[in-house]
Design goal:
This protein is of the alpha+beta class. The chain contains nine helices and six strands, in the order βαββααβαααααββα. Helix 4 crosses helix 8. One of its GO terms (molecular function) is oxidoreductase activity.
Length: about 210
């Protein structure tokens, strides 16, 4: 068989559009029946690299970062909840929701890659954050997510205090930023073409068809 279509998804665990974008891409792949021809790798991007350990109230954070009013935020959250529901994903927004630091989650996603569990862990973490009201910077939550997808939690968590593992994530983040990635999701096809944002399923089908024809 020919080489697989390599798809890099630059994203963050706490990015709603990254979840919607991936789910739409996955739907396109499934409907085209090309699951065996595609290889997905998740690349790290922190929306809030300076987020303190205790996090920040999401409403405060969005107002501070984007200047959005509470009404605008509510409308946006409703829209995302509808988009998620269409794809079988639950966005459970609530007033006390807190934005989390995701650096350690990215270290674990890199660890999961060697075991073919990256996508599974990514979706487990994003579900924990958006659907289950959990803090994905809390090591107890991270440990449970690792166990849920069948990974060696103790071995994985040891990477969190490993300078080499931390440096690797910083380097990867810098690599994608230096290529001009400044918003997520950015979905890169065979390292040649990229789209940003949660594109419709039909757009992904068109891109995948073009890539297959190359």
């Amino acid at each position: 068989m020919a080489d697989k279509i390599k798809i890099d998804i630059v994203s963050d665990v706490v990015c709603p559009w990254c979840t919607i974008g991936y789910k739409r891409l996955d739907k396109a792949i499934s409907e085209m029946g090309i699951q065996d021809q595609v290889e997905i790798e998740w690349q790290p991007f922190e929306l809030n690299p300076h987020m303190p350990k205790e996090g920040q109230n999401v409403q405060e954070h969005i107002t501070e970062k984007y200047g959005s009013s509470l009404e605008e935020q509510k409308r946006s959250q409703e829209y995302m909840a509808e988009a998620g529901a269409e794809l079988g994903f639950t966005f459970d927004y609530f007033d006390e929701m807190r934005m989390a630091n995701t650096f350690e989650a990215h270290i674990l996603l890199e660890y999961a890659k060697a075991f073919g569990k990256q996508t599974e862990l990514k979706m487990r973490l994003t579900t924990a954050f958006f659907s289950e009201r959990k803090d994905v910077s809390d090591r107890a939550i991270l440990k449970q997510a690792l166990l849920d997808v069948g990974l060696n939690a103790e071995e994985a968590l040891a990477n969190l205090d490993n300078d080499e593992s931390r440096y690797e994530i910083r380097s990867k983040e810098d690599y994608w930023k230096n290529l001009g990635v400044n918003s997520v999701p950015t979905i890169v096809f065979i390292r040649k073409s990229a789209v940003t944002g949660a594109q419709p399923v039909d757009v992904f089908k068109r891109i995948l068809t073009e890539v297959l024809e190359q």
